[in-house]
């Protein structure tokens, strides 16, 4: 729908609401017409000012959204969002780069498919508890990328529903888990050297 057709539709809807009879219109005095005309001009200016403010706010929201999107994808930590079953709903570019994949390819992939075979059972057995109450919990697993190179990762999560634990009335299926993944290869290498 174009802006002109949208304006025409709004005008048509407004005309249906007004519903003045010809007798009512002919009984309006010239002074009342001048006052109405003045009021309409003031109202039009108010609407233009409100529109300008809305456009400024929309621009600022767009700018902040772009900045947040850039930050999300460029932080030096992998970030994914998991559903209650462990499927990836969203992944940042850092996590995808860690594994040698494109972020879009990771969507709808079960997280366990990215875990080194010997560590999958650890994830599967601990996922429910981790998902239900992620605060102060972490997992240390080896992840396996596109080139089958495994790397150790520290995995931490936060509930995306505004709570850290699920109450009895909370629907876990609606919860999302935002997970950070940090490659800890350097930490382990340094610990082995010491």
Would you kindly provide a brief summary of this structure?
Pfam families: PAS_9. The chain has seven helices and five strands. With 194 residues, the chain is an alpha+beta fold.
3D structure, described in words:
The structure is a single chain. The protein is of the alpha+beta class and 194 residues long. The protein has helices at 3-18, 22-26, 30-74, 93-99, 103-106, 120-132, 185-193, and strands at residues 78-82, 88-91, 138-144, 150-159, 177-183. A five-stranded antiparallel beta sheet has the order 2-1-5-4-3, sandwiched between helices. A hairpin with a 5-residue loop joins strand 1 (78-82) and strand 2. The termini are far apart. This is PAS domain-containing protein.
Percent in strands: 15-25%
Indicate the radius of gyration in whole angstroms. 29 Å
Helix and strand succession? HHHEEHHHEEEH
What gap, in angstroms, lies between the N and C termini? 67 Å
Broad structural category: alpha+beta
| Order of neighbouring strands in the sheet with most strands | 2-1-5-4-3
Fraction of helical residues: 40-55%
Please tally the β strands and state the result. Answer: 5
Biggest beta sheet summary: 5 strands, antiparallel
Shape: elongated
Q: Round the mean pLDDT to the nearest integer and report it.
A: 86
Compute the number of helices: 7
Low confidence ranges: none
Domain PAS: 66-132
Coiled coil: 40-67
Keywords: Coiled coil
Pfam families: PAS_9 (PF13426)
């Amino acid at each position: 729908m174009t802006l002109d057709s949208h304006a025409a539709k709004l005008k048509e809807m407004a005309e249906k609401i007004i519903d003045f009879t010809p007798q009512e219109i002919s009984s309006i005095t010239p002074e009342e017409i001048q006052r109405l005309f003045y009021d309409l001009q003031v109202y039009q200016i108010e609407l233009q000012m409100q529109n300008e403010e809305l456009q400024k706010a929309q621009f600022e929201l767009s700018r902040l959204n772009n900045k947040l999107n850039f930050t999300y994808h460029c932080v030096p930590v992998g970030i994914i969002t998991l559903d209650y079953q462990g499927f990836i709903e969203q992944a940042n570019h850092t996590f995808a780069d860690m594994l040698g994949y494109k972020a879009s390819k990771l969507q709808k992939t079960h997280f366990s498919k990215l875990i080194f075979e010997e560590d999958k059972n650890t994830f599967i057995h601990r996922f429910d508890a981790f998902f239900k109450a992620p605060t102060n919990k972490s997992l240390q697993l080896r992840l396996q990328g596109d080139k089958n190179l495994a790397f150790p990762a520290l995995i931490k999560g936060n509930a995306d529903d505004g709570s850290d634990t699920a109450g009895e009335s909370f629907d876990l299926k609606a919860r999302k888990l935002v997970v950070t993944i940090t490659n800890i290869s350097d930490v382990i290498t340094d610990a082995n050297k010491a």
